[in-house]
């Protein structure tokens, strides 16, 4: 029986570090902060006095919400 939080055989962490968000989105740190300020990217949550993290589900939703690029007259999907 699959756990509701388990989407595949691999369990995704619930919180992501800024470093991991930069890796997953390929955005620079400054571009992320600019987009957060402009409300174009999910804001981090505070997890300690000087620590932040991002909700993995929100980052995944943001990635999925990005439009597909059309390549050579196709929609980029197979």
Describe this structure in words.
It is a single chain. The protein has about 80 residues and is an alpha+beta fold. It has a domain at about 15-65. About 35% of the residues lie in helices and about 15% in strands. It has three helices and three strands. Strands 1-3-2 form a three-stranded antiparallel sheet. The radius of gyration is 15 Å and the shape is globular.
Q: Radius of gyration in whole Å, from Cα?
A: 15 Å
In terms of DSSP E residues, the strand content is 5-15%
**Strand line-up in the sheet with most strands:** 1-3-2
General shape: globular
Question: Which SSEs are present, and which pair or pack?
Answer:
Blueprint: E1 15-16, H1 18-25, H2 29-37, E2 45-48, E3 51-55, H3 56-65
Antiparallel strand pairs: 1-3, 2-3
Properties at a glance:
single chain; 78 residues; alpha+beta; three-stranded antiparallel beta sheet; 35% helix; disordered N terminus
């Amino acid at each position: 029986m699959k756990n509701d939080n388990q989407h595949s055989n691999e369990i995704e962490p619930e919180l992501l570090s800024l470093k991991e968000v930069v890796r997953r989105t390929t955005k620079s740190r400054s571009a992320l902060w600019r987009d957060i300020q402009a409300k174009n990217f999910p804001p981090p949550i505070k997890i300690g006095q000087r620590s932040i993290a991002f909700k993995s589900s929100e980052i995944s939703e943001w990635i999925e919400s990005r439009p597909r690029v059309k390549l050579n007259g196709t929609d980029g999907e197979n």
